[in-house]
Amino acid sequence: MIPAATVPLHTAPLPAAPPPALPLQPVRWQQLWREAVRDPGELLAMLGLEALANRVSAEADAQFPLRVPRGFVARMRHGDARDPLLRQVLPLDEEMRAAPGFSLDAVGDGAARAGAGVLQKYRGRALLVTTGSCAVNCRYCFRRHFPYAEETAARDGWREAVQAIRADTGIDEVILSGGDPLSLATSRLAELTAALAGIGHLKRLRIHTRLPVVLPERVDAPLLQWLAELPWPVAVVIHANHANEFDASVDSALAGLRDAGARLLNQAVLLRGVNDSVEALADLGERGFAAGVLPYYLHQLDRVAGAAHFEVPDQQAKALHAALAARTSGYLLPRLVREVAGDPGKRPL
Ligand SMILES: *Cc1c(COP(=O)(O)O)cnc(C)c1O
Ligand code: SF4
After folding, report:
1. How far apart are the CA of 128 and the centre of ligand 2, in A?
2. pLDDT tens figures, 71-115
3. CATH topology for the 110-348 domain
């Protein structure tokens, strides 16, 4: 900050070209967010995959639009129609095929969702739906049918959500989720944690986010400063599904988070054509560990309409998990789980 009062105005030389005030400069990550690729044709052209255009579904794209930051596209392999990162974001014809058992509300959130954007399914943990926004639209996501625009905890300046958490002394952990909580401006996050800081029964804060992976520029100095000053131990659960999602920019974002005191965990979804091999899962665990991240969960897909082509049958999932256990370090083995509505926690397979 410049202490303006110490410079007598009448003697101060006029600067030839005054630098623009900081708040007027677009924040870099927000700029990169706005510049995300949204046109399937453009994405395919960037990758030399124009021939794939006939498998793209305009209808699926209209339902849940393609959105992918350019830095993430840069990690896709040029000319590879089976690239595991591309498959996670490209709207394909398969999504429009009806599949029995795949529904709009696969995990029962419609019923569990309280008005304040607070979800409490499990003992001790309150999950805040902080926002409906994400920097990337993942084709397998339950969010494709729930934009959550009006139901977020941020809606009324966090008041109702904070009140609910304060009133329930059984809650010791607050989980920021969404959408992607780091898609909110750091100042909004700081508003929330300032309001939570006075609640004596809170012991931990957890953040579930894909942004350090898909838009690592989000992990900027103000975010790290906010994190470092939080009064609780913090876990950041990143969502990476494939080793290729990591690069130097992701490594440096993750190093920043660790330096700010966060414990890093990874949660992946088992996805056909993305990570449904022992090699892919072992590589993911090892690559994550190299970046300071321990595996946490490997989720069986939520059976959400449009995602059936990603499903790995339970038998195969269990066999993959057993084969992974036989070849990797114990601490690099994620827990294979599924979310079942009404259960007291994630259900092990
Ligand atoms: C998954 C989930 C949690 C976190 O469960 P953990 O097993 O502690 O990771 C908490 N609340 C809700 C509503 C969830 O869906
Ligand atoms: S909530 Fe997670 S999986 Fe769903 S679109 Fe956002 S980043 Fe992707």
Report:
1. 15
2. 999 999 999 999 999 999 999 999 999 899 998 876 665 555 556
3. TIM Barrel (3.20.20)
